[in-house]
Every structure is written in C-alpha cells, then in structure tokens.
Design goal:
globular; eight-stranded parallel barrel; 47% strand; mainly beta; Pectate Lyase C-like; secreted; Pectin_lyase_fold/virulence; 2 helices
C-alpha cells in the first residue's frame, strides 16, 4: 500500500484501538541501564531537567523506615519549582522518593518498591504532571499531595498499593483546594485511585482508566489539626469526584 493511502486510513484504524493500548501504559518495571547510589538526595534546580537515562537510583546507606514518617532529607530526588525528572528507576532503600518543592514534571519515572510515599507535592499553586512511569508495593500512598493547585497523572501504572494519590487529610495548613486529574491510568491489586477532602473543595476527575476492582474515589472531611480525617463516602458523586470510562478489565 502506498504510504499516503495508509495515512488516509490511519484515523479509522486508530478509532478501533482501545484507548489504553493506544496510549501504551507500560505494566512492567523497565530494565535498568546501570546503578547509582548516593548518601544524600539529588537536587534538580528550578526550571532544569534531569535525565536519568534509565539508571537505577538508590540511597546508601538505606534510609527506608517503612511507614514511619521521615522527610525530605530521606528522598532520592528533590525538585525545585519547575524542574523535570525523566527516565529514572528509584530503588527500595530510599524513604521518600521524589519531593517537589514547587510545580514539577515527572516523565517515565519508576518506583521499584515504594517505602513511605513515592512522590510528595508541596507546590503552593499551579500544575504538576506525572506522565508515564509507575510504582510497585506502596503500603499506603503513591502520591502525597500536600500543596495546592492541580496534579495531572497520565499513562501511569500502579501495582500493590494503598491509594494512587491522596490529598492531605490533616496537614496543618489545610484549607485550600487540591485538584486531581487522572487519565489513562492502570492500577491493580490496590485501593482507590484518589482520596480527596470535599470540605476544602478538592476534586478528582478520572477518565479512560482501569482499576481492577472499580475503586475510584474515597471522600473525606479533612482537618488541619493532625487528627485522622473522617471518611464520608466512596465512588463518584457528580460534584467532587467524577468518573468517565473506568474499567475493571486491566
């Protein structure tokens, strides 16, 4: 077939391809192109890009304390405002994965074995993006959203986890809204895709995704006192949690 004739048929061909397959969510940990171990986090300066070239990055000595809260000093990467991290595999010996001090972009970043959290967002406003990549074995959250503004997660894979993303339920500066946008995410053997605080106006919009038990949102009443937040419901409510094309066949 002449290449121009093929191009003319391409839209019709693509229309028959399932969206997840078209987007190409990778569901296995990529092979490492080498290994790097450091005794302190690697900082990516504001506006800069760090390409890990698919190497495995980990902390030595080990700082993971499982679900004990640690902090930024025990992260593998610290991203300043506007920084981008790409093509990285993060090993199991770090504790806090990636900390974003402002808005950040993660592209094809993988977490071999999540310790406390994989990604912590601390932006005061704006939009952070997590594109591609994935995380395995997160006892609790993969993404901890402590700041404000929006996080967009697309083409991401999660396996054996608590929540894919949680809007902080009891941070001391709670009171503003956080917005979560999830598109073309595949999540298996875990809990909900997002947890939000409706009393602060948080929202979660899920589209074209798969969670093998159909678990979409948990809704909470958040606080700023440090107390455990109260769960008030699960699933879409048409206002704070909206869901379009969520499958159980992952």
């Amino acid at each position: 077939m002449h290449r121009y004739a093929f191009l003319a048929l391409l839209p019709a061909v693509l229309a028959k391809v399932p969206l997840v397959a078209r987007a190409g969510v990778t569901t296995t940990l990529p092979a490492s192109a080498g290994a790097t171990a450091t005794s302190a986090p690697i900082t990516v300066k504001a506006g800069q890009t760090y390409d890990g070239k698919m190497k495995n990055f980990d902390r030595s000595p080990r700082v993971c304390a499982e679900q004990t809260e640690t902090g930024e000093d025990d992260a593998m990467f610290i991203l300043e405002d506007g920084a981008t991290l790409s093509n990285v595999i993060i090993g199991p010996n770090q504790a806090e994965g990636v900390h974003c001090r402002g808005t950040c972009t993660l592209i094809n970043v993988w977490f071999q074995d999540v310790c406390e959290d994989a990604i912590t967002l601390k932006q005061s406003s704006g939009t952070s993006r997590i594109i591609g990549g994935g995380a395995f074995h997160a006892d609790d959250k993969i993404v901890q959203f402590n700041g404000f503004g929006t996080v967009e997660i697309s083409d991401f894979f999660a396996s054996d986890y608590g929540k894919v993303v949680r809007s902080c339920g009891n941070c001391k500066d709670n009171g503003g809204a956080r917005h979560i946008v999830i598109d073309n995410v595949v999540a298996v053997d875990g809990g909900v895709l997002c947890g939000i605080n409706t009393n602060y106006g948080d929202t979660c919009k899920i589209s074209n995704s798969c969670q093998d038990d159909g678990k979409s949102c948990d809704r909470f009443t958040g606080n700023n006192s440090g107390k455990e937040p109260t769960k008030i419901g699960s699933g879409p409510d048409g206002q704070f949690c909206t869901v379009t094309n969520l499958s159980k066949s992952c």
